Amino acid sequence: MLLLLLAAVCAGIIALAARWRSRQHSATQLLARLPAEDAVVLYIDFAALRQAGVLRILEGSDLIQEPEYRAFREGSGFDYLRDLDWVLASLGPEGSYFLLRGRFRWSTLNRYVTQQGGTCRYAFCRVPGSAPDRRISYFPVASNLLALGVGRDAYAAYRLQEPNPGTRPGTWPAQPAWFFVPATRLRRTEALPSGARLLAQALEATEGVLLSAGLRGQQMEVALEVACRSGQDAEALASQLRQITALLRESIAAEKKQPDPRDLSGVLTSGVFESKERTVYGRWPLERTFLEAMAGGAQ
């Protein structure tokens, strides 16, 4: 009777676990799981970009050709250009957290991790990274959904099991790629190029900035959305952004140069801004040459 009771309990646990893992997770629920304290939150819909032909730009990039990535692709059986549908992530001072949906060969992936000196126990895997502060951990949330943590904590991925605090975008953008930058991160402008630094400083007084990328007609573009405290603040910010863009054009012209569509000078000087009530909207067209340059030498 005791054995039968234990068997029944185990069967119940297995059934509940299967039901929990197979249920659909909404975008809002998954977004709430990301630890987002002072973190940049981003989303990339690889399936949509693949369908639009954008991912073909990355096929010849330096990242794809790196020996480390090729070894990972061959050992794990996972190629993000082919197998990844989307990624939702937060990048913060305490670590980076990812939720990835795609097609995973779990047994092959786990075997590759153990070959690299990692361990897997009860579907939770850990493996040393390239540095002491880059310990990697992951577990399957569902058959097609992986939770991944990278940081000093060897068990960082555990945090993705439940909702976490932090500042996130209020609405889910329709574009296939977006990222949200809280105001606390905008104050750290030391590592930015001078042109981008001016734009970041102009946005410091807001709660955060939402940038998204997608198609507008036949051309890729980046869109900006900033919620301000009042309509007057929004109008002032839009005016300031227009002035900064004009200043960038003048400074480039003073050096007897032209904005280069392959780098940030061409993108930032093409910005257009407007305010509606308490919100500022902006957009920057993205040329294919810029995307190829960002990809690092795509053919």
Protein model, in words:
The protein has helices spanning 2-22, 27-33, 46-52, 62-65, 67-76, 80-83, 106-115, 183-186, 194-202, 231-254, 264-268, 288-295, and strands spanning 40-45, 84-92, 95-102, 119-121, 124-127, 135-142, 145-151, 177-182, 208-216, 219-227, 272-276, 279-286. The protein has 299 residues and is α+β, with helices and mostly antiparallel strands. It folds into two domains: 27-161, no CATH class; 177-295, no CATH class. The protein has a twelve-stranded antiparallel sheet with strand order 4-5-6-7-3-2-1-8-9-10-12-11. A hairpin with a 2-residue loop joins strand 4 and strand 5. Helix 9 (194-202) runs antiparallel to helix 10. The model is unreliable at 1-24 (pLDDT under 50).
Secondary structure elements and pairings:
Layout: H1 2-22, H2 27-33, E1 40-45, H3 46-52, H4 62-65, H5 67-76, H6 80-83, E2 84-92, E3 95-102, H7 106-115, E4 119-121, E5 124-127, E6 135-142, E7 145-151, E8 177-182, H8 183-186, H9 194-202, E9 208-216, E10 219-227, H10 231-254, H11 264-268, E11 272-276, E12 279-286, H12 288-295
Antiparallel strand pairs: 1-2, 1-8, 2-3, 3-7, 4-5, 5-6, 6-7, 8-9, 9-10, 10-12, 11-12
Helix pairs in contact: 9-10
Question: What does this entry show, briefly?
Answer:
This protein is an alpha+beta fold and about 300 residues long. It has helices at about 1-20, 25-35, 45-50, 60-65, 65-75, 80-85, 105-115, 185, 195-200, 230-255, 265-270, 290-295; strands at about 40-45, 85-90, 95-100, 120, 125, 135-140, 145-150, 175-180, 210-215, 220-225, 270-275, 280-285.
